[in-house]
């Protein structure tokens, strides 16, 4: 974070964060959907316990990249992923890897809030339950409570834990999904435009949460809003038409970007 | 592009011409609406006529005229160790004879023919069930025979010549006498539900057919429901998408169009021929019906699985659920309402299906309800088929009544399913 | 006995799964290392090992036992070799009756000996069965419990079992088809050995009044299938003529014009039409609709047959209404709201929106429903058996009587029949043809639906 | 198997049903299972072999044929007993709403329903008769509409044999044809017309009854018991001046009557519980007698001496053919 | 809130554009969806032949207001509209008003492109045909051609007019919908986030088009992108939580807004 002056290419070769601090690393990541190539040789390091923002115009491959990181692309028949992605130095596309375990370690909050049509409690308890993280009901209650608290939702729902998760407002649903994701204590949290459905107040709350979570988790967030990226992230990566255009410390990206496209995008010349 | 200049076209929307045009368009709109109403009225009207006709011909079968008489069995010298072997015919006839004092010998035959020929067995069975009756005077009711039942229900025109009706003038006299004495009543015909089939309309009931249908449908459900769902899940979620799965899909759709009688042939060849299962049993009937029902359930289940938003699947997978867990914890419960609708339609068809059951012998004459899936029995539709082909007049009304009972069975089944479906239904 | 064993299996599986769960729990608490699967999976896995092999074994044993016991009994029955098959089965039957305590006449000493043999064998078989099942259960339970340790992937194992069950289930549908095609082809081949394929495919006369038995009196028999398929076509066409407009118009009204409450009531009512037994429709067609058609014919000056195609077709059409209305309803509902909005925003009326935008957009779904209904119309049996004629006639006059493939199949198969007679075999040939035709229809249906699906 | 299994003719079916029920009521034994497969189908099942998988008794609306005896013998069913239980009239009936006093000769029936009629010159023409009055001016001028049994039923066989052949044989030239070309004779005399007036109405006789009601100008062909039950709505058509009723059928003066039988597989008598009692019941006076319950259901009973003979044969298990 | 109302009232009394130039006017427009109120007494004038941009955070009621202007809310069962909206001084919620005519005069382009599943030609010809705007095929051809030309799509599709409209790319579909809307020669065009689905190049084309259309049509555009609002509109209205917060000339709104919330929103403090 201290040395911000080096050029982007160099940065990739000599990441300014220490090797030990790299949580995930994508090397020459390519993605094809059938014939169509959606990502072109993306190289990106995700530093531990920091917030990395992915920005770029619609359709540039941000979500695609995010979904590579916990192999959610496996669920799309036409998607083929190339290159190499590691989590703590381990190749996550290794056939020997247990996807279920991977996804437990790399949690995801989706672009659209998607709570299960079950009670609020069950929504949060589901993850700990299938992973057997708790021994008894009391422990489970505790996990649910603390997750909801972290997601800044506890005060609003503590009296209605048995009501359906789908009956919450959009912003509450979004935070419920966040609570659900952190209940499994993942090491990395992927958030795809977590505020797209949110009003200003809820947005502020989520941003506050991200800021807090950063102390314990590695966070990657996709956002369409430059303002948001500027507010919450330490590092920013700019995508365009499937290419990683530029990445670096957020301060620098927003004040003095190297790439003309980044400059144009941030100042609203397109997008 | 900037070179193109756009002249503003001004349209006078309020002109008479435009207004007239709009009027015509609105008229066309109304016509379409009316056609729709006519179509629905036609379909519902048909349903109403159908049920109306059935009710009109069938309601009479829901009552049965009976004669009630008193019998002092303590005087009858019955050997209590052999109640079965007593002279029940004599005992019952004696009691009936008392109803008409001075019954001439020449009219005895006509007189006793007024009551169901099984009267003595009915009384006997009642006593065997309740031996306390042996100790004193008790009242018994036995049905009138079919022609007299028709008379009691006003179905016999007394003005027709005696030779053209099944009741003689003498019997009408007796009937009037009995009825004046208050011995004849028309209570609700519980026998329709609790008796089994009989050659005699006044005794014939649906207990055998209802339990046969119940067992067959149970077998059908137990086979087709899990297998249909499992097959659908496999094809939709696990099988690779290729030509071969396309073929299976076409094939399953095609199975839905195979005439039901062909399924009967298959059952005849495979279940009876190869496996050597007995004829006429609900187990085989259920298995044949299950083969027919499977395609419906598979098709509907696949459709409902695809309609669960992928976001739910992703949510589960994103937390680290395995594919099987995601399906069984989330997707299947959510598709359950639709699956149940499909199951209902499939079972409704199975319930009303006749042709395949004819081939495996479920149209036999069986006078006791089956105690399980391996005992010979009929089913409701085949019972309807048999009754409809019986000469006795009483069976005409009973056939319609049986159809109404079948529809009741259907509606009950639907109601249960709709109730369960509502319990499964979740607000999004 | 068998029922107890099945009960025992279920009980054993439950007990073992509980044991497995507690064992897995202990493993989890005693080891620091992360456990792969939750205890419930270890339990389920142990239960599968315990129950499934024994279950399959028990089923096989029960199907085979009697035949084997009989064989052994007869093997030691004096003079059994000299007996014909019929006599053997008679003797066996007597032995079994006597063994069950049903004596009609004084049994011969041989029979009594055989009865004793049978009873001892059955006792033996029973104990052998119990012992083997118990052994299988024990081994399975032992194995299922033994594999429990922290890195054992019990979840994978359970999921594999489930997948195998699902694979087996989808095979059932395929086996059904194979069974149908197999039996049809086998019998149809025999038919074509007697009646030339060309006559069947192109012949214009269908009169299967061929003598059933050598000494029965009847006509010559002609097996040209075209009139029969023609009749099927006429009746199906009439049915579709009733069902398609009624179904689509009802769907239009329900989705676009009516209120939600009206729809909630009327839709299930319409669906009852699909659940009414077809025998009932058959009666209705014969007793109510056919006479009405005759008098209609009289008033417009057309001579109507008592078995008019119109009566059968119209009633069948009513039965098919819900197929088309429900599926069209779904198809209309599936047209994205954006299509409607797009049309309304241009200033079109409801009617225009329905006819010009929704109908084309929903066409694949509607076509799918119509084709399903058509398949049903072609395959429908009971209505036509009761309401359509038996005489094959090439006519397009709806007031005339025609016959259909399914009527012929049922008439040829039910009633007096002899299975090596062209008359009976013809039923299979007709069935096969019908199968091929509906397969073609479904192929077209799938293509059509694929072609238009997800285009908007 | 602990209950008796009966298959066979749909015509005998109701009588077997009645006996089965009475038997079960009286003895408290499980009621026999009775299945209606048609006469031919019944023999096929019956002759399939011995043993619990095969039927014990089959009903027949005609005597067993040579071919069927052979089939039985081939499958080891060599010892069977035949029992003639009575007669069944094949009635031709119309609705009572029809005012004509119908009296047809067999020849007129043939002319109304045959596919082809002799043209008088040694050849044949397709049946040109559309109205009854086309056949004979004294008959009503209404269209010929006859509902009858399909070719797969024994009733149809009986009708063809008893009415059509009789009506056919006296037509000009037919006697010669019979001598010259028996096959051709059989074909001409057996074929029912296919052009509309004769309607093959399926196996369901009640359906025919109800159709006659709704269409008073049509005639129907079905078992006498249906006419008997519906005598307030239908009237029998006289054939050759004879009206169908129990008396005319029993004494043979009504020409369209046929005998009804059942056949017992004697090998099963000692194997299937209740066979003996059942057979006793079937041939008892209470069932078969003139006032028996089978007569009540429409069976035309046998003469007394004939009946005694049958009772004896059945109870003793008289072997068929000996 | 008091201040806000005052500002709004003042503005209405002294509209920036002359009275004769007001094409549409909303007075105290309120909308309820069932119980929920989505718009609160909105007063907004739409000047003729100008582009008015509606901005504001997600869920603030922009689309709802837009749909009031051509009564598309009629198609939503639960929606109830209050207040008064006029087109050329005529109340469009008057029961005597012919909705079909109204919608022909006030065209709409939706947030998501929604071409009919028909040929490109039929898509454009649909409107003129139902309204009987042309007398013969030649005239219709001309209308189709000129509409496609105006929507800057002609050159790309002139050789494939008979192909399905749904086979076009997202941006082309959006322009097809614009062509379809202008083929009826409406007086007002409502555009709901017309560029949300578009990539930068397509966005640029649509913006150019809007600029040209302004010569003849009155245009109202909803956008989430401040940059876009700044680029294409002459006037801007800012919505928040169902209230119209502020409206005025775009230049002024983006440089010197009166309301704190507008300021915050534009500078990315929230949203
Ligand atoms: N399932 C899919 N099948 C085919 N193409 C896809 C699929 N998902 C995404 N794409 C394509 O891949 C490209 C990248 O999509 P992606 O979803 O990653 O964009 P994004 O940057 O997340 O955009 P947005 O900001 O709109 O969410 C796009 O062109 C998109 O059309
Ligand atoms: N059909 C509806 N039923 C109920 N509430 C609705 C409906 N449509 C919109 N709303 C609610 O009305 C409010 C305003 O919605 P509107 O669609 O006008 O927002 P918007 O400003 O267009 O937002 P966006 O920028 O996300 O499109 C929101 O709170 C929304 O939840
Ligand atoms: Mg995305
Ligand atoms: Mg909106
Ligand atoms: O059943 P049948 O008597 O007609 O053979």
Automatic annotation (TrEMBL), chains A, E:
Gene Ontology cellular-component annotations: membrane
Keyword DNA damage: no
Keywords, alphabetical: ATP-binding, Nucleotide-binding, Phosphate transport, Transport
GO molecular function: ATP binding; ATP hydrolysis activity; phosphate transmembrane transporter activity
Gene3D superfamilies: P-loop containing nucleotide triphosphate hydrolases
Domain of life: Bacteria
InterPro entries hit by this protein: AAA+_ATPase, ABC_transporter-like_ATP-bd, ABC_transporter-like_CS, P-loop_NTPase, PstB-like
Domain spans labelled ABC transporter: 24-266
GO BP, sorted A to Z: phosphate ion transmembrane transport
CDD domains on file: ABC_PstB_phosphate_transporter
SMART domains: AAA
Similarity field: Belongs to the ABC transporter superfamily.
Protein name: Phosphate transport system ATP-binding protein
From TrEMBL, chain B:
One CC-aspect GO term: plasma membrane
Membrane topology (UniProt): Multi-pass membrane protein
Transmembrane segments: 32-56, 214-235, 255-277, 283-305, 326-348, 401-420
Record SUPFAM superfamilies: MetI-like (SSF161098)
GO-annotated biological processes: phosphate ion transmembrane transport
Top-level taxon in the UniProt lineage: Bacteria
InterPro entries xref list: DUF3333, MetI-like, MetI-like_sf, Phosphate_PstA
UniProt keyword annotation of Magnesium present: no
Residues annotated as domain ABC transmembrane type-1: 210-417
Cellular compartments annotated: Cell inner membrane; Cell membrane
Pfam families named in the record: BPD_transp_1, DUF3333
A GO molecular-function descriptor: phosphate transmembrane transporter activity
UniProt keyword terms in alphabetical order: Cell membrane, Membrane, Transmembrane, Transmembrane helix, Transport
Chief location: membrane
NCBIfam families: 3a0107s02c
Family the entry assigns: Belongs to the binding-protein-dependent transport system permease family. CysTW subfamily.
Name recorded for this polypeptide: Phosphate transport system permease protein PstA
Source species of the chain: Mesorhizobium tianshanense
Automatic annotation (TrEMBL), chain C:
Chief localization: membrane
Family according to the record: Belongs to the binding-protein-dependent transport system permease family. CysTW subfamily.
Organism: Mesorhizobium tianshanense
Transmembrane segments: 6-22, 43-64, 124-143, 164-186, 228-254, 266-290, 310-336, 357-378, 425-446
GO biological process terms, semicolon-separated: phosphate ion transport
Organism domain of life: Bacteria
Pfam families assigned: BPD_transp_1 (PF00528), DUF3708 (PF12501)
Keywords, sorted A to Z: Cell inner membrane, Cell membrane, Membrane, Phosphate transport, Transmembrane, Transmembrane helix, Transport
Name under which the protein is recorded: Phosphate transport system permease protein
Function statement: Part of the binding-protein-dependent transport system for phosphate; probably responsible for the translocation of the substrate across the membrane.
Subcellular location(s) per record: Cell inner membrane; Cell membrane
UniProt keyword Transmembrane present: yes
Domain ABC transmembrane type-1: 229-445
One GO CC term, this protein: plasma membrane
GO molecular function: phosphate transmembrane transporter activity
InterPro entries: MetI-like, MetI-like_sf, Phosphate_PstC, PstC_N
Membrane topology listed for this record: Multi-pass membrane protein
């Amino acid at each position: 974070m201290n040395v911000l002056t080096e050029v982007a290419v160099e940065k990739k070769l000599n990441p300014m964060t220490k090797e030990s601090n790299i949580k995930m690393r994508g090397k020459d990541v390519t993605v094809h959907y059938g014939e169509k190539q959606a990502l072109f040789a993306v190289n990106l390091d995700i530093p531990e316990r920091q917030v990395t923002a992915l920005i770029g115009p619609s359709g540039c491959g941000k979500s695609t990249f995010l979904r590579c990181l916990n192999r959610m692309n496996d669920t799309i028949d036409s998607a083929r992923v190339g290159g190499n992605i590691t989590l703590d130095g381990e190749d996550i596309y290794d056939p020997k890897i247990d996807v279920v375990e991977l996804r437990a370690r790399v949690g995801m909050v989706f672009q659209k809030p998607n709570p299960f049509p079950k009670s609020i409690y069950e929504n949060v308890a589901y993850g700990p339950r299938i992973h057997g993280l708790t021994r008894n009901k009391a422990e489970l209650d505790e996990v649910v409570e603390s997750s909801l608290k972290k997601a800044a939702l506890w005060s609003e729902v503590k009296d209605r834990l048995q009501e359906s998760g789908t009956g919450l407002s959009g912003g509450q649903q979004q935070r419920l999904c966040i609570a659900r994701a952190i209940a499994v204590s993942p090491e990395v949290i992927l958030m795809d435009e977590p505020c797209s459905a949110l009003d200003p107040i809820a947005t502020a709350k989520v941003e506050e949460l991200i800021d807090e979570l950063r102390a314990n988790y590695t966070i990657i967030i996709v956002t369409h809003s430059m303002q948001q990226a500027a507010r919450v992230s330490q590092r920013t990566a700019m995508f365009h038409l499937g290419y990683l255009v530029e990445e670096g410390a957020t301060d620098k990206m927003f004040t003095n970007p190297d790439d003309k496209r980044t400059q144009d995008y941030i100042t609203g010349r397109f997008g | 592009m900037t070179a193109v200049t756009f002249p503003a076209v001004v349209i006078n929307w309020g002109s008479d011409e435009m207004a007239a045009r709009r009027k015509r368009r609105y008229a066309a709109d109304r016509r379409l609406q009316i056609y729709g109403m006519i179509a629905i009225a036609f379909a519902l009207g048909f349903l109403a006529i159908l049920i109306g006709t059935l009710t009109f011909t069938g309601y009479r079968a829901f009552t049965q005229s009976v004669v009630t008489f008193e019998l002092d069995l303590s005087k009858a010298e019955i050997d209590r160790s052999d109640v079965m072997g007593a002279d029940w015919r004599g005992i019952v006839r004696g009691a009936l004879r008392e109803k008409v004092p001075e019954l001439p010998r020449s009219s005895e035959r006509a007189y006793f023919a007024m009551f169901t020929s099984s009267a003595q067995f009915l009384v006997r069975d009642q006593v065997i069930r309740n031996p306390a009756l042996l100790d004193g005077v008790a009242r018994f009711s036995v049905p009138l025979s079919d022609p007299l039942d028709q008379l009691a229900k006003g179905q016999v025109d007394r003005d027709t010549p005696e030779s053209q009706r099944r009741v003689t003038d003498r019997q009408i006299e007796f009937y009037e006498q009995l009825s004046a004495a208050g011995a004849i009543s028309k209570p609700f015909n519980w026998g329709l539900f609790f008796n089994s089939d009989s050659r005699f309309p006044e005794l014939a009931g649906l207990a055998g057919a209802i339990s046969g249908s119940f067992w067959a449908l149970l077998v059908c459900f137990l086979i087709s429901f899990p297998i249909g769902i499992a097959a659908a899940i496999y094809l939709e979620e696990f099988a690779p998408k290729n030509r071969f799965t396309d073929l299976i899909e076409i094939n399953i759709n095609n199975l839905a169009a195979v005439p039901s009688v062909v399924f009967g042939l298959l059952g005849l060849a495979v279940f009876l021929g190869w496996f050597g299962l007995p004829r006429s049993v609900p187990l085989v009937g259920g298995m044949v019906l299950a083969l027919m029902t499977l395609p419906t359930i598979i098709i509907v289940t696949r459709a409902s699985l695809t309609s669960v938003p992928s976001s739910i699947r992703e949510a589960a997978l994103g937390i680290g659920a395995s594919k099987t867990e995601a399906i069984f914890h989330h997707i299947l419960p959510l598709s359950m309402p639709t699956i149940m609708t499909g199951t209902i339609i499939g079972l409704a068809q199975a319930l009303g299906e006749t042709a395949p059951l004819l081939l495996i012998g479920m149209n036999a004459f069986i006078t006791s309800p089956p105690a399980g899936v391996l005992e010979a029995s009929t089913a409701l539709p085949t019972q309807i088929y048999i009754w409809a082909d019986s000469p006795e007049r009483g069976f005409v009304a009973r056939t319609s009544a049986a159809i109404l009972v079948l529809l009741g069975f259907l509606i009950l089944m639907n109601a249960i399913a709709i109730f369960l479906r509502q319990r499964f239904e979740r607000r999004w | 006995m068998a029922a107890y064993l099945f009960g025992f299996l279920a009980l054993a599986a439950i007990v073992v799964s509980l044991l497995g769960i507690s064992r897995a729990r202990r493993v989890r608490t005693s080891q620091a290392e992360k456990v792969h699967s939750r205890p419930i999976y270890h339990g389920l896995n142990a239960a599968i090992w315990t129950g499934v092999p024994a279950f399959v074994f028990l089923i096989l044993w029960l199907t085979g036992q009697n035949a084997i016991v009989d064989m052994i009994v007869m093997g030691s029955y004096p003079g059994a070799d000299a007996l014909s098959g019929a006599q053997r089965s008679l003797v066996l039957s007597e032995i079994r009756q006597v063994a069950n305590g049903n004596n009609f006449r004084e049994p011969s000493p041989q029979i009594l000996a055989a009865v004793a043999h049978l009873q001892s064998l059955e006792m033996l078989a029973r104990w052998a069965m119990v012992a083997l099942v118990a052994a299988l259960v024990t081994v399975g339970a032992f194995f299922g419990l033994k594999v429990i340790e922290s890195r054992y992937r019990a979840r994978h194992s359970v999921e594999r079992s489930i997948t195998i069950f699902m694979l087996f289930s989808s095979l059932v549908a395929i086996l059904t088809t194979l069974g149908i095609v197999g039996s049809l082809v086998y019998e149809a081949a025999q038919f074509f050995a007697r009646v030339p394929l060309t006559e069947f495919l192109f012949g214009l006369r269908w009169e299967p009044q061929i003598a059933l038995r050598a000494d029965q009196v009847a006509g010559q028999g002609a097996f040209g299938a075209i009139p029969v398929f023609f009749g099927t076509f006429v009746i199906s066409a009439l049915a579709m003529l009733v069902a398609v407009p009624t179904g689509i118009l009802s769907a239009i009204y329900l989705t676009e014009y009516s209120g939600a409450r009206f729809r909630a009531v009327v839709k299930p009512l319409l669906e009852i039409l699909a659940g009414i037994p077809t025998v009932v429709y058959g009666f209705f067609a014969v007793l109510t609709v056919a006479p009405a058609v005759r008098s209609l014919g009289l008033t417009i000056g057309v001579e109507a047959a008592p078995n008019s195609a119109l009566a059968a077709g119209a009633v069948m059409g009513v039965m098919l209404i819900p197929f088309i209305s429900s599926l069209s309803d779904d198809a209309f509902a599936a047209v994205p709201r954006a299509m409607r909005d797009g049309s309304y925003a241009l200033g079109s009326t409801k009617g225009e929106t329905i006819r010009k935008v929704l109908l084309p957009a929903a066409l694949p779904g509607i076509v799918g429903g119509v084709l399903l209904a058509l398949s049903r119309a072609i395959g429908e049996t009971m209505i036509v058996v009761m309401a359509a004629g038996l005489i094959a006639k090439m006519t397009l006059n709806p007031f005339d009587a025609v016959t259909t493939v399914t009527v012929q199949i049922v008439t040829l198969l039910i009633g007096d029949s002899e299975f090596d007679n062209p008359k009976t075999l013809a039923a299979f040939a007709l069935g096969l043809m019908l199968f091929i035709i509906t397969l073609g229809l479904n192929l077209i249906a799938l293509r059509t639906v694929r072609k238009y699906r997800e285009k908007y | 198997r602990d209950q008796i299994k009966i298959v066979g003719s749909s015509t005998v079916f109701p009588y077997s049903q009645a006996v089965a029920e009475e038997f079960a009521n009286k003895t408290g034994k499980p009621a026999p299972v009775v299945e209606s497969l048609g006469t031919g189908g019944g023999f096929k099942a019956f002759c399939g072999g011995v043993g619990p998988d095969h039927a014990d008794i089959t009903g027949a609306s005609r005597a067993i044929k040579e071919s069927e005896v052979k089939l039985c013998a081939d499958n080891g069913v060599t010892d069977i007993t035949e029992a003639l239980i009575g007669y069944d009239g094949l009635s031709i009936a119309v609705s009572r709403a029809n005012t004509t006093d119908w009296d047809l000769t067999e020849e007129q029936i043939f002319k109304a329903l045959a596919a082809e009629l002799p043209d008088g010159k040694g050849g044949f023409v397709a049946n040109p008769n559309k109205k009854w009055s086309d056949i004979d001016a004294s008959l009503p001028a209404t269209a010929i509409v006859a509902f009858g049994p399909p070719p797969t039923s024994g009733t149809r066989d009986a009708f063809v044999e008893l009415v059509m052949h009789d009506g056919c044989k006296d037509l000009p030239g037919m006697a010669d044809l019979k001598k010259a070309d028996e096959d051709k004779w059989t074909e001409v005399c057996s074929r029912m017309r296919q052009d509309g007036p004769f309607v093959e109405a399926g196996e369901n006789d009640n359906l025919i009854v109800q159709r006659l009601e709704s269409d008073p100008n049509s005639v129907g062909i079905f078992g006498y018991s249906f006419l008997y039950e519906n005598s307030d709505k239908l009237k029998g058509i006289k054939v050759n001046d004879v009206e169908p009723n129990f008396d005319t059928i029993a004494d043979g003066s009504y020409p369209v009557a046929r005998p009804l039988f059942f056949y017992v597989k004697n090998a099963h008598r000692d194997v299937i519980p209740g066979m003996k009692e059942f057979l006793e019941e079937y041939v008892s006076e209470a069932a078969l007698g003139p006032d028996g319950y089978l007569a009540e259901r429409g069976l035309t009973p046998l003469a007394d001496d004939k009946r005694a003979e049958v009772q004896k044969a059945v109870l003793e298990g008289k072997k068929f053919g000996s």
